Request: fold
Amino acid sequence: MTGPPPPARPGTERDGRDDGRDDADVITQSLDEPELFAGLYDRHAPDIHRYAARRLGEGPADDITAETFLIAFRTRDRYDTAHRLARPWLYGIAANLIGKHRRTEVRALKALARTGHDPVAASWSDRSDDRIAVQAPLAGALAALSPGDRHVLLLVAWADLGYQEVAEALRIPLGTVRSRLNRARRKVREALSTDPAFVSAEQELTPSWTK
Reply:
């Protein structure tokens, strides 16, 4: 076998794959039984896909998700099993892949900020057109962030990772996570503070900021 089993559509599960073993056990055992790696896909692919779709849209998210798990499968022999949960590892791979599309992401965010309507925005969640328009000022603020700051902010706010998990995902010190998050939060608030939609837009990121 040269790769993981054909991926199921995000949101679906294979019967019998998830039997209670933690991620580290699944990865370790998949070294001898590669088909077991499908269990890791079943657990985490829907979340990875959802995160990628919010940042890049549905089409790129399909490719990002597939490539994330292909890379994970090929490098699983180097996984540190001291980390029993693989979410940070998988999000780190996905973040690296998303980073290769940063120009596309920024271009889409700027388009949404300018027009209040953009194809990528429709995939952020099942929002109505007026709900999408409310996110226009937020999109402009996100587009203005550096790639590193945007990664940290959105991994916390949209992927719901804790600070330590973000540090593991991006392979940066915990202190760097905190400083990047504080800087990103300040810049976004400054950018939104003069906009009448500030309160609604800020709510998109606020819940996870308080972790």
User: Anything to note?
Assistant: The CA atoms of residues 12 and 105 lie 27 Å apart. Confidence is low (pLDDT under 50) at residues 5-17, 118-134, 196-201, 207-211. The chain has twelve helices and no strands. The longest helix spans residues 38-56.
